[in-house]
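Design a sequence for this backbone.
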């Protein structure tokens, strides 16, 4: 399953962390000291969430299948 994620840097210097969540599952949020650590933690958190609520995973898969023309959000530097 492919999910859209939002990564938000918080803090500065030594205290900088990255909060992360999936757009399709907004109530699962975690953070890490690096972007990769945040992604790994989100993956683990989502796996645990879907173990507890397997029907939610099926609902998201169905929505993704039905919405093939979903807008993408990205960033471009000019």
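Sequence:
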């Amino acid at each position: 399953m492919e999910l859209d994620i939002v990564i938000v840097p918080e803090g500065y210097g030594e205290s900088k962390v990255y909060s992360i969540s999936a757009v399709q599952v907004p109530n699962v949020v975690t953070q890490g000291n690096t972007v990769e650590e945040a992604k790994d933690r989100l993956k683990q958190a989502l796996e645990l969430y879907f173990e507890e609520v397997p029907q939610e995973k099926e609902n998201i898969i169905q929505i993704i299948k039905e919405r093939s023309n979903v807008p993408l959000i990205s960033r471009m530097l000019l």
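The chain has two helices and three strands.
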